[in-house]
Amino acid sequence: MNLGLDVGYSATKAVSGDRRVSFPSVVGTPDRARFSLDTDQAIVLAIPDCVQVGEEAVAQSRFMNRREDRRWIESDEWYTLALAAFTELTTASVELNIVTGLPIAFYTDKAVVRDRLLGEHKAQREGRHAQTFRVTDVRVIPQPFGALLAETLDNQGRIADRDLATSNVGVVDVGGKTTNLLSVRHLAEIGRETASVNVGAWDAVRAVHSWLTEHCPDLDLRDHQVVDAIVARQVKYYGEAVSLADIVDATLQPLAEQVLAEATQLWNGGAALDVILISGGGALLLGDAIERPFRHGRIVQDPVFANALGFWKFAQRL
Amino acid sequence: MRVTKSVSLDTEADRDILRWLAAQPNASEAIRLAIRAYQGRGSVTLGDVYQAVRDLERKLQSGVVMAASPGNEREEPPEAAAALDKLGL
User: Fold this and answer.
1) What's the whole-model pTM score?
2) Closest to A73 measured CA to CA, from A25, A41, A21
3) Does ipTM top 0.85?
4) Cβ–Cβ gap B26/A127 under 8 Å
5) What is the pLDDT of residues A247-288, one digit of tens each?
6) B25 preceded by cis ω (within 30°)?
7) Among A218, A259, A287, B76, which lies 20 to 30 A Cα-Cα from A202?
8) What's the rounded Cα separation, in Å, for the pair A277 and A268?
9) Cβ–Cβ of A314/B77 closer than 8 Å?
10) Residue A187 and residue B88: Cβ atoms within 8 Å?
11) Which chain B residue is nearest to residue A108, measuring alpha carbons?
12) Listed residue (A74, A286, A84) closest to A175, CA to CA
């Protein structure tokens, strides 16, 4: 089974064929609601560790782990998220060929990711039989290539968009912690025009969280709930809607400008590029502000899943 | 949002399905997977495959089939295809 895996700081996404899964990159203690009719939606692993993952962890876990450092890929949480994604995609024991990505700034760590994923992995979801995943091949590519490959390749992994494959393309991939800027020509990376900016969607989350602490002090939202509030541009406080429009705009604009400044400098204004693709979960927050100044910029289809989809399409080719 | 759908099964006529469902650790998940597998099957039936083989047989007998040129198999831009082959290595 070919699998595109994108374990991001904010969300984990995986694609295999028509199957797509996404959940917050949160691992927590397996605390459950005392009365719940919605039990089979929770991702609770019994093996290798007894933990709860994703939405239910955000909602129910008393203690949660969410990391944002480079060595995250060596952590138990990262490994748990990968296993949880496998068990979300299939209930069977299967052989996997995986394509995944790393931020450009951390791309030299690709051997670490490869070594962690290769080989046999056992997992058991609560209420299910144990599963064994035998990972026979792993290819780690620069993260933003995923969105480009999603747009360029067909479901068999063949080049379907010849124009895009032979163009000068810029990719702005807005992640949770970093934004990756990639420039390619004929699908080959142009190293001098490729960089990472230490700006991501979590910067906006932190800023809005801090505003909420001051203005709605009795509201104790978790990070992923703040993301929902930013997208909705409002939050409920004692039953009353509190508009976040002003603080969201005031937060997102300078972040977008920081990305734009770096992209403009790196790509010398961007006029030599044929198209600029904007992708990543952060595109939902910063995409419009980044797209506006570039007349040839466009947010890719389904920016949250674009990297994982491109990884899967590339796996189909290998 | 969670949606619940009721399905009626006959204890005699659908005995095989009931037995299979009882053996599943998570019946809802098993049904979802079965439906997705059915959807992914597309609309190709055994009859379609048989018909395609018969058509091919007829073409071979009438001599209208030409061997495809090897060059047509890969119409990808060579430079881009080469870059993809090296990606991540």
Assistant:
1) 0.74
2) A25
3) no
4) yes
5) 988 888 888 888 889 888 888 888 889 999 999 888 888 888
6) no
7) A218
8) 16
9) no
10) no
11) B88
12) A286
